[in-house]
């Protein structure tokens, strides 16, 4: 379980996260939605320890990620992350992209790491692209590669930050399918997305962020079908009418 | 017409001593580049992050190394250290001075390269559990090296040519050996022409070597 307790985050003077509290339960898919600049990406980066927080605490499996006594690099292995930007490593083949972190971080022997990497590539439907360099892969394939690369560290949690936003429409489905597969397999996931259809179909729970605070959180039915606050009603209304 | 008569055979007798000097030149070039890269990479990273004492040190280093004559850098090391009682050989003084100069230029080359590697490359590495050093070593550095490869090669050739300044503090590198040889054989033009040809061949050799090393480490460019 990931427990987020009253987390505050500011860049200089500007408060970005203003006391966020949120639990991510084992095996659930939690979607984070909200307007641009509401702090969704920042929250994910805090969960992964990529951004320091100024107040509150974040516990992953009961361990405080900010505590000086835990190695943040070790903790990150539990929490995989995929970003909006394609960030496949351009100097490595797909297979090497996936095998790199297990080799240098988890010290898995080369042959074993490559064999595992192949398995993870196959899992996301890229088994036949192992020797390709990222520049020869489509955007959708690069995002699936990024997912495979995160999975290779065998994380317990996966964070997705608008992973389909930069994709051509026809490539979105293959990436979402991969995420649905993970969900069926019981991966615990936090997904930031603007794709309300995906939220309705796949999310267990939805949290709506606005100006660094959680306005509403609950099941898809509660938040998406019957929002209580005006701001969420407006946000969803604008989406469905467009 | 000129009344200089070329006597290559006489000059060629000094080829072995020129080759000995060439070996010294090669050594100095390679060592000064190893030191240069080793010191400039961490400084470039710190300068790029733009904070702290080391960023300031790197900035000052770039400033001094690039805005003063290399000749004076050689003199500063040789006579300067000497004045403080550290009597070092002309070989060590040339090596230190050329390394100092390399570091100044290489910091700027690497810093420029760092800016071209997208920040998300580094962040992705960190998100996979890599330490900052691992993310730089396995993700940023190989991409950076591809980008700055030719600038680094240019610096290496520049370093090789600059080692000839060692001649002025009595070092028998290639230029020093040629200077010495022609003062005895009086075949000034032939001897320096041979030296120039050797410099040229060494430059080609060094670049070829670096390309092979790169291919060995990182695959084709
Ligand atoms: N490194 C940074 N330095 C300063 N301000 C930042 C930084 N990163 C984000 N911000 C600010 O924090 C706020 C929240 O940004 P964040 O990226 O978390 O929003 P978001 O909800 O993910 O938005 P979007 O839907 O556009 O991706 C924004 O106002 C942004 O300008
Ligand atoms: Mg965002």
Automatic annotation (TrEMBL), chain A:
Pfam families tied to this protein: ABC_tran (PF00005)
Any one annotated GO CC term: plasma membrane
Keywords associated with the record: Amino-acid transport, ATP-binding, Cell membrane, Membrane, Nucleotide-binding, Transport
GO molecular-function term, one example from the UniProt record: ATP binding
Membrane topology category: Peripheral membrane protein
UniProt-annotated location(s): Cell membrane
SUPFAM superfamilies linked to this entry: P-loop containing nucleoside triphosphate hydrolases (SSF52540)
Principal location class: membrane
Domain ABC transporter per the UniProt entry, residue ranges: 2-236
InterPro entries from the UniProt entry: AAA+_ATPase (IPR003593), ABC_ATPase_HisP-typ (IPR030679), ABC_transporter-like_ATP-bd (IPR003439), ABC_transporter-like_CS (IPR017871), MetN_ABC_transporter-like (IPR050086), P-loop_NTPase (IPR027417)
SMART domains: AAA
Family the UniProt entry places it in: Belongs to the ABC transporter superfamily.
Name the UniProt record assigns to this protein: Amino acid ABC transporter ATP-binding protein
Organism: Gluconacetobacter asukensis
TrEMBL record, chain B:
Domain ABC transmembrane type-1 residue range list: 22-207
CDD domains: TM_PBP2
InterPro entries recorded: AA_ABC_transptr_permease_3TM (IPR010065), ArtM/GltK/GlnP/TcyL/YhdX-like (IPR043429), MetI-like (IPR000515), MetI-like_sf (IPR035906)
Pfam family, one: BPD_transp_1
GO cellular component: ATP-binding cassette (ABC) transporter complex
Primary location: membrane
Keywords: Amino-acid transport, Cell membrane, Membrane, Transmembrane, Transmembrane helix, Transport
NCBIfam families in UniProt: HEQRo_perm_3TM
Protein name: Amino acid ABC transporter permease
Lineage, uppermost ranks: Bacteria, Pseudomonadati, Pseudomonadota, Alphaproteobacteria, Acetobacterales
């Amino acid at each position: 379980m990931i427990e987020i307790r009253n987390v505050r985050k500011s860049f200089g003077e500007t408060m970005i996260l203003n006391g966020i509290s949120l639990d991510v339960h084992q095996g659930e898919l939690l979607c984070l939605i909200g307007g641009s600049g509401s702090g969704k990406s920042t929250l994910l980066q805090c969960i992964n320890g990529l951004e320091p927080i100024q107040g509150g605490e974040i516990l992953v499996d009961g361990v405080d990620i900010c505590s000086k006594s835990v190695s943040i690099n070790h903790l990150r292995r539990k929490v995989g992350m995929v970003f909006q930007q394609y960030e496949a490593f351009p100097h490595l083949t797909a297979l090497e992209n996936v095998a790199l972190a297990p080799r240098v971080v988890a010290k898995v022997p080369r042959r074993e790491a490559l064999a595992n990497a192949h398995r993870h590539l196959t899992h996301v439907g890229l088994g036949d692209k192992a020797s390709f360099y990222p520049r020869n892969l489509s955007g959708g394939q690069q995002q699936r590669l990024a997912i495979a690369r995160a999975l290779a560290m065998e994380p317990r949690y996966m964070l997705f930050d608008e992973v389909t936003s930069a994709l051509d429409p026809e490539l979105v489905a293959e990436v979402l399918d991969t995420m649905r597969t993970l969900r069926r397999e019981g991966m615990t996931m936090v997904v930031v997305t603007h794709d309300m259809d995906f939220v309705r179909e796949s999310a267990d729970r939805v949290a709506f962020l606005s100006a660094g605070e959680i306005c509403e959180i609950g099941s898809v039915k509660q938040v998406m079908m019957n929002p209580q606050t005006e701001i969420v009603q407006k946000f969803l209304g604008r989406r469905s009418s467009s | 017409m000129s009344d200089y008569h070329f006597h290559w055979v006489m000059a060629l007798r000094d080829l072995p001593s020129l080759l000995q000097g060439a070996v010294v030149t090669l050594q100095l070039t390679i060592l000064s580049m190893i030191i240069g890269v080793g010191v400039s990479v961490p400084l470039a990273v710190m300068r790029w992050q733009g904070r702290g004492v080391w960023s300031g040190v790197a900035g000052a280093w770039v400033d001094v190394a690039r805005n003063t004559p290399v000749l004076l850098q050689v003199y500063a090391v040789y006579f300067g250290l000497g004045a403080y009682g550290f009597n070092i050989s002309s070989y060590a003084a040339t090596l230190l001075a050329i390394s100092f100069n390399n570091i100044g230029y290489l910091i700027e080359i690497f810093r420029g390269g760092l800016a071209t590697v997208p920040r998300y490359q580094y962040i992705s590495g960190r998100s996979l559990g890599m330490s900052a050093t691992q993310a730089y070593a396995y993700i940023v550095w190989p991409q950076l090296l591809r980008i700055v490869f030719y600038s680094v090669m240019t610096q290496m050739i520049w370093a090789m040519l600059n080692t000839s300044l060692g001649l002025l503090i009595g070092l028998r590198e290639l230029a020093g050996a040629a200077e010495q040889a022609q003062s005895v054989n009086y075949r000034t033009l032939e001897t320096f022409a041979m030296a120039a040809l050797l410099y040229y061949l060494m430059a080609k050799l060094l670049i070829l070597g670096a390309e092979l090393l790169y291919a060995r480490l990182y695959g084709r460019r």
